[in-house]
Specification:
single chain; alpha/beta; Rossmann fold; 5-stranded mixed beta sheet; 5-stranded parallel beta sheet; 48% helix; binds iron/sulfur cluster
């Protein structure tokens, strides 16, 4: 008998080959909540965690959210082991109440505070007349920063949007941190069918939350606002599924808005036909035809982006995202699978992405920082997903054209990447 020793792996090697899903492989998920809160005017944020978390989170918040002071009790090993977390949290909240012009104190309870036994329920609801909200976002409970945005927004809504008010007819509340032009473009199209955007959340002011209370319907432009949508829906607000992405997505979304807001069907169909005509006119040449594109990110809207590329003619066999699978991702997932996407990975890891690189010959990688560092070395044109997303509109025909044109330019850069590989190999 000849044993095939080449096939044998030790338990240690096996564990190394398996993908670890216990840690999120992204920036601290609490950052999403911190971003939503620090960008609100008048909010004083208090982080309850150890000094390491505080250092990292205040750094990224100053960089990617708002340049605002964040308060935190000094919690090192000595303080944590002496069981003084509750007292330290209370003292920090009282300190926050002294900040000039503070209109809300937002307390974030993170991994270390939670495991050290912080009793969030016992923290005050108000200090010196200033409301206090507590948001629990330890990474072992909230696995990605987009989902932490939802937790923060839902907590704000539950505190400030409570009473039933007469809704402003034919108005829509949008959920999602989008390119600033997107809500304006959506609003101008909605006005042609007799509706309008009332407000886009998360925003910059607490007043916008009160305004949201009056919306007739709500639409999540990103598929991870589960808690926020559920809360507004419980209050009687109609929910519009999906987002106005690409030709097909835009048509379906406009029809859904028409039904939810009881708009004139004929007018809606006319505008749908106009939008479809513009979109199909552009897509007729299939600008991305022949290209195989890799999509991976941790923003939570990767499935939407993949749809755009496929409508542009690209083959997108693999999409990965940091968010979890839910009812809000179901329609996009079904659409992608029906249009040639073979693998859709939720709660992705870098190991998942690396395995996919071996399965298809990619012409372009739109991915995370660590992934694109690897694929650039292989001579594949590669860009950082977040940068691509943050600088141009995404929705309706305008967003579709802007993105597809940009991707076409990126595909043309293949010779430059290959020259770079040859240069360093020489
Ligand atoms: S809150 Fe948790 S995930 Fe975030 S930096 Fe601290 S320990 Fe890490």
């Amino acid at each position: 008998m000849v044993a095939d020793f080449g096939q044998q792996t030790t338990p240690k090697e096996q564990r190394a080959a398996e993908t670890c899903k216990l840690h999120p492989q992204t920036m601290c998920p609490a950052f999403g909540a911190l971003r939503v809160l620090t960008r609100l005017e008048g909010v004083q944020t208090v982080l309850i965690s150890d000094t390491g978390c505080f250092y990292g989170l205040s750094f990224v918040a100053h960089f990617y959210a708002a340049r605002k002071s964040i308060l935190a009790p000094a919690l090192g090993t000595a303080e944590l082991s002496s069981g003084k977390v509750q007292e330290a949290a209370l003292a920090a909240i009282e300190e926050a109440a002294k900040a000039p012009n503070a209109t809300l104190i937002a307390v974030l309870s993170l991994c270390v505070a939670e495991t050290a036994g912080l009793a969030v329920e016992l923290l005050p609801k108000e200090v010196a007349g200033i409301p206090v909200i507590c948001i629990r976002v330890p990474a072992y409970m909230i696995h990605s920063h987009p989902e932490a945005k939802d937790i923060a927004l839902a907590t704000l809504l539950k505190r400030f949007v409570q009473t039933e008010k007469t809704s402003q007819e034919k108005t829509l509340v949008l959920l999602g941190e989008v390119f600033p032009a997107d809500p304006l473009i959506i609003d101008s199209l909605l006005r042609t069918i007799g509706a309008r955007v009332l407000v886009t959340l998360p925003g910059r002011s607490l007043d916008e939350l009160h305004l949201a209370e009056q919306g007739a319907a709500v639409a999540a432009l990103h598929p991870f606002y589960r808690d926020s949508l559920a809360y507004l829906n419980e209050r009687g607000m109609a929910v519009i599924g999906g987002a106005p992405i690409g030709a097909e997505g835009t048509a379906n979304w406009l029809r859904a808005v028409g039904v939810a807001l009881d708009l004139d069907e004929e007018t809606v169909e006319q505008v749908v036909a106009q939008e479809e005509q513009k979109a199909r006119g552009f897509l007729a040449s299939q600008p991305l035809k022949g290209a195989t594109i890799f999509v991976s990110g941790y923003e939570g809207n990767e499935l939407l982006y993949a749809r755009l590329l496929i409508e542009g003619g690209a083959h997108v066999p693999y999409v990965s995202t940091s968010i979890g699978q839910s009812l809000l991702t179901a329609a996009d997932e079904t659409w992608l699978r029906a249009h040639g996407t073979k693998e859709i990975i939720y709660r992705k890891s870098l190991e998942d992405d690396k395995k996919a690189l071996d399965k298809w010959p990619f012409d372009l990688v739109i991915g995370t920082t660590s992934l694109v560092a690897l694929t650039k070395e292989q001579g594949i044109p590669s860009v950082y997903y977040t940068n691509v997303l943050s600088v141009r509109p995404l929705f309706l025909v305008a967003g579709m054209i802007a993105n597809i044109m940009m991707v076409r330019d990126l595909l043309n850069r293949k010779p430059i990447y290959q020259q770079m590989v040859s240069f360093f190999a020489a």
